[in-house]
Design goal:
Blueprint (H helix, E strand, L loop, with lengths): L1 H9 L27 H23 L6 H11 L2 H4 L5 H5 L5 H22 L2 H6 L2 H26 L9 H11 L3 H10 L6 H29 L4 H28 L9 H20 L4 H11 L4 H29 L8 H29 L3 H11 L4 H12 L8 H7 L2 H11 L1
Helix pairs in contact: 2-3, 2-15, 3-15, 6-14, 6-15, 8-9, 8-11, 8-16, 9-11, 9-18, 10-11, 11-12, 11-17, 12-14, 13-14, 16-17, 16-19, 17-20
Length: 429
């Protein structure tokens, strides 16, 4: 083996062979199993994910549950432990060697998803938000974040002494996050989007998420490597400032050169998508995370008809195909068997109760200060308690950086409570 390596190293122009059969199958007509090739397996995984997603969406449609609940259930239903009951289905459909391709596609979809989230946010509403919205947003950050950090050390105990301190902040952020996209859909389904309560909830949710991303951009480099975190934070801050004061005016200048009402050309769409990818690569190279750059690029993109057109072109592909794949990758990581442990079940129930009450209590405190009705204060707390994919993303970042190694089922147990909250909101409104 060593002599072969030396022989190849001595060649002036070594030849590398690409084995195409690793990707493509010759079909069953040549007595081959197509499920040992990466491309057929990936296509099958996408097909099963989309079929399961549409089936669950159809089943839960009469219950008027949010799309996020369906995506959570897709990840759980395709959990290998469930699929492999009685058969070795999981080893065939989701073999270990195929997960690299699946996670790559899922994370690419995540990058474009957070770009669309940033594109959807209107920072002008933040400027017009009153003191009440800021108070609710800040209270919804400080109180849940503190409880989340405290619950992290309680759940951690003495079993995982090697976990990094940054994991406590990441866990707290997963509790603090308010899904703006989910809040919009919940308020629209309840026909409260254009009411005073709906406008207050949207302003508070946007402020909450902007602060969340700022804290996340600082926490990720610390969780990755504390010694170089200072430089990573400084460079990432420089990227954000460059995007605000250079990229945003540049985009405005380019868009002004084209008359209003005209559709974006293929070249313009390409440049925008390239900007998303380059921003993601830039923040990843800075020592942060790729989604930070994608979100910032979407946030600095001017709102208006152009932004709406981009969302219309990308949303079906991203949210309909790529995002469900991310929930499948999350489901593969879940340790559902740990729910069989009675101690784990108790911890899950207590943690879910504490984390669910955190947002509600914070809004009720503001309710006392601004003389809001108890019904509106409690309802607002339930709405702002809405979570989205970012809660899972933050927890996965913690696991990837070895900062979080808590019970994997908590991320699903805490977030699937959204169904009960929606039903209660329908009752009180």
């Amino acid at each position: 083996m060593a002599s072969m390596a030396e022989e190849i190293g001595n060649q002036e122009d070594p030849t590398m062979c690409y084995v195409i059969n690793i990707v493509n199958s010759q079909g069953i007509w040549r007595a081959e199993n197509p499920l040992v090739k990466s491309l057929p397996v990936f296509i099958l995984q996408v097909a099963i994910t989309l079929l399961t997603f549409r089936l669950l969406l159809l089943i839960l449609k009469p219950l008027r549950q949010p799309r996020f609940i369906v995506e959570i259930l897709v990840g759980l239903s395709l959990y290998p432990g469930i699929m492999s009951i009685g058969h070795g289905v999981a080893t065939k459909v989701f073999p270990y060697e195929s997960l690299a391709v699946l996670e790559t596609a899922a994370n690419l979809g995540l990058v474009f998803h957070v770009f669309l989230n940033g594109l959807e946010m209107d920072l002008n509403s933040v400027n017009m938000a009153g003191r009440r919205a800021f108070s609710i947003a800040i209270a919804g950050i400080i109180f849940p974040l503190g409880l989340g950090i405290a619950s992290f050390f309680w759940l951690k105990g003495d079993q995982n002494p090697s976990l990094k301190a940054g994991g406590a902040v990441l866990w707290g952020l997963s509790v603090t996050v308010t899904g703006v996209h989910t809040v919009t859909r919940v308020l629209a389904s309840l026909k409260l989007l254009h009411s005073d309560l709906g406008k207050l909830a949207m302003s508070s949710a946007i402020i909450n998420e902007v602060f969340l991303w700022a804290i996340l951009a600082v926490t990720i480099p610390i969780a990755n490597e504390f010694r170089t975190s200072c430089w990573a934070v400084l460079v990432t801050t420089g990227f954000v400032l460059f995007s605000i004061f250079a990229v945003r005016p540049g985009i405005r200048w380019v868009l002004k050169k084209y008359p209003e009402g005209e559709r974006l050309t293929e070249g313009q769409i390409f440049l925008i998508l390239a900007g998303v990818v380059m921003s993601a690569v830039a923040t990843d190279a800075c020592g942060s995370y790729s989604i930070i750059g994608a979100f910032v690029f979407g946030l600095v993109f001017p709102t208006g008809d152009r932004a709406t057109e981009i969302m219309e072109k990308l949303e079906d592909m991203v949210t309909g195909i790529l995002v469900p794949l991310y929930f499948v990758t999350c489901g593969i990581r879940i340790n559902v068997e740990s729910l069989m442990d009675s101690d784990t079940v108790v911890k899950v129930v207590v943690a879910v109760a504490i984390l669910c009450l955190a947002k509600i209590m914070s809004t009720l405190l503001v309710h006392v200060l601004y003389n809001m009705s108890l019904q509106d204060g409690f309802g607002l707390g339930l709405v702002l308690n809405s979570k989205d994919i970012m809660a899972l993303v933050i927890l996965n970042i913690g696991r990837d950086t070895l900062s979080i190694d808590l019970h994997g089922n908590l991320k699903y147990g805490r977030i699937t409570r959204r169904g009960g909250e929606i039903l209660y909101l329908k009752y009180i409104y």
